[in-house]
Amino acid sequence: MATNQPLHVIVAGGGIGGLALANGLHRAGVSVSVHEREVERTDRLQGFRIHIDPHGSTALAELLSPRLYSFFAACAGKGGNGFGFITDQMKQILQFDPREQPFDPAGGGHYGISRITLRRILLAELHDTVRFGSVFDHYERRADGRVVAHFADGATEVGDVLVGADGGTSRVRAQYLPHAERIDTGIVTIAGKYALTEQARDRLPPLLLANPLTVIPPRGCGMFLAPHEFTLPTDATNVLGGEDRPVPESLFDDTQPYVFWAFGAKRERYDTDPETLSTTDLHQLAVRMTTGWAPELRTLVNDSDPETATAIPIKTSVPIPAWESTNVTLLGDAIHSMTPYGGIGANTALRDARLLCRNLIAAENRKRGLLESIHTYEAEMTDYGFAAVRHSLTVAEQSVSDNPIARTAGKLAFRAARAIPALQRKMFADILS
After folding, report:
1. Residue 226's closest CA among 187, 194, 190, 189?
2. Beta bridge mates, 265
3. Which fold has domain 8-80+103-183+316-396?
4. Nearest to 250 by CA among 88, 44, 21, 40
5. First vs last Cα of the chain: how many Å apart?
6. CB count, 10 Å around CB of 380?
7. In a 10 Å sphere around its CB, with 0-12 CB exposed, 13-18 middle and 19+ buried, how is residue 114 labelled?
8. φ, ψ dihedrals at 259, nearest 5°
């Protein structure tokens, strides 16, 4: 493999991790191209708010230009710092109060942001770097060690590195590490959105509008909810392009404020297969599953737009042993897909992007060999990445546990934390780390 020429990096997948990596490489002068299968925003799941933790915000601060990172912080919604636990009867178990979070250009804060807005920010300075409607098919290696990426439309591209950032169903991973499994956990989540119109806002208590909450019923299920209220900066059109105040549309998360909710349970707990239902029937199933809950929570679910209801089968990757590094590597869900419980998937992908970017820049600058750089990245990434997978799965299983003793013990621990500030600080750090 030639090492005396500038690198060219091919990124398969234009999600959050792949675009963040491309921004960092582009800013450092490393040649990079991104191939994204979607032509426009069609994925319903893009319409949900995501939480960016200190790992994610620090990565974004390093990978984005200072202008874009400041804009990211300005676009973030309210309530990114706080977090609480309540029962299904609206009894407060524990509340981590929001802390003051002055803007730090080096990152490190907590932010709640529209997934669509974040993606638009990540695209804002990449211009012709991203090729839309380009579906990765397979790769091959040339005699000189370089990699040739083949795409579904017959196009090819030659590069020094191929990065699979193409999500949980990664075609790059399927060819490169075919033994790496992604399995169904048996948990299915029904998610939806309650639009915060002026009248709808008055029907909810302040507790449900302050910050994200986890609802803990006595057994067998759980719910996560998060308000998303935001104001786009006045220069949004200049930075993002297009309309900065789109017509309100409940399927997307960058046009109006809302409360996101997600009810989760084991598949067998439902009286039907949620994945086979229409959006209207899915919404009604969520209404039935929350029968007997507090009226405020019932209002949140019942009065949501049925068209926003989405069934999400919860899957997770299975950690694998280390492999021999080559000039093909993986990032984010393509290698360590995890459940959404814990809210760490996107942040782990951003952490990957930052680490891989640093190592590829070192290879570009001849401070380290290319394969050594990729090996260094993979060794660290798989360590924290698969630890995140295990943590996320543990949280998911605890959230839908049928063991009332374990759930009661958890509630007692939360109540103890309310009385002991040091324990509360530690618990808060563990939850949002």
Report:
1. 194
2. 188, 221
3. FAD/NAD(P)-binding domain (3.50.50)
4. 44
5. 39
6. 15
7. buried
8. -110, 120
Domain ranges of the chain: 8-80+103-183+316-396, 185-314+400-432
Q: pLDDT tens-digit profile of 149-189? A: 999 999 999 999 999 999 999 999 999 999 999 999 999 99
Q: Which option is the CATH number for 185-314+400-432: 3.40.50, 1.10.10, 3.30.9, 1.20.1280?
A: 3.30.9
CA pair distance 266, 285, nearest whole angstrom: 14
Task: Give pLDDT tens digits for 219-230.
Answer: 899 999 999 887
H helices, E strands: number in the chain: 15, 17
Residue with the two structure tokens 């009604």: 284
pLDDT band, residue 80 (cuts 50/70/90): low
Q: For the whole model, what pTM was predicted?
A: 0.89
Cβ proximity of 166 and 176 under 8 Å: no
Ramachandran angles phi, psi of 154, nearest 5°: 95, -10
Ordered alpha helix ranges (H), 2-144 = 16-27, 54-63, 66-75, 115-123
Beta strands 31-36 and 8-12: pairing type?
Answer: parallel
Span 406-430, pLDDT tens digits: 555 454 544 444 445 554 455 445 5
- Domains 8-80+103-183+316-396 and 185-314+400-432 fall in the same CATH topology: no
Edge-to-edge strand list for the sheet holding 161-164: 130-132, 31-36, 8-12, 161-164, 328-330
The answer for 84, left when phi > 0, alpha when psi is -120 to 50, beta otherwise, is: beta
- Which pair of structure tokens corresponds to residue 272? 């039907």
Amino acid residing at 348: T
Identity of the amino acid at 297: L
Confidence grade of residue 289 (pLDDT, cut at 50, 70, 90): very high
